[in-house]
Design goal:
- The structure is a single chain.
- This protein is mainly beta.
- It is about 10% helix and about 25% strand.
- It is built from 1 helix and 7 strands, in the order E-E-E-E-E-E-E-H.
- The chain has a 5-stranded antiparallel β-sheet, with no helix packed on it. Strands 1-4 form a two-stranded antiparallel ribbon.
- The longest helix has 13 residues.
- It is globular, with a radius of gyration of 15 Å.
- The two termini are about 20 Å apart.
- About 30% of the residues are buried.
């Protein structure tokens, strides 16, 4: 329920498997995973061949968009290579309407520790900002 506007995921516009470090921005959405993270711009691992979102209607359902590819200036990207799959409006993650389910094509689980990055600011300590997703999930299960 609440995922009626989700897209189909089809071949990347490049028609290739794309594996790279990309940058995303976390958008305001109902996602319980991204509580307290809205506006964050973070590097993320991308590794997929079928990650381009194809929406059934003529609009992107803004209310459930959770993650977008952005360029080095933080602007939403629809262009390769900053948007490795070619999704409209940089969409690469969505939440259902009550926030309990979130889907995304990049892989934050591959960057949970600061040592997974070639460089990370000292203030991160051992955990990368992506760990917050998992802290949020744990907190949510404690509340339920």
């Amino acid at each position: 329920p609440g995922a009626e506007d989700w897209p189909a995921f089809v071949h990347n516009r490049s028609r290739q498997f794309e594996a790279r470090l990309s940058q995303v921005r976390i958008e305001a959405s109902p996602s319980l995973f991204f509580r307290g993270m809205v506006g964050s711009q973070l590097p993320i691992v991308t590794a997929h061949g079928e990650g381009r979102a194809r929406f059934g209607g003529d609009r992107v359902p803004e209310e459930v968009v959770a993650l977008r590819y952005v360029d080095g200036s933080g602007q939403v990207s629809e262009h390769y290579p900053t948007n490795p799959n070619g999704s409209p409006e940089g969409v690469t993650g969505l939440s259902n309407r009550d926030g309990r389910v979130t889907i995304l094509m990049p892989h934050p689980e591959r960057l949970l520790r600061a040592v997974n990055f070639s460089w990370a600011p000292a203030e991160w300590g051992d955990a990368s900002p992506w760990m917050q997703m998992f802290y949020n999930a744990r907190q949510w299960t404690a509340e339920v």
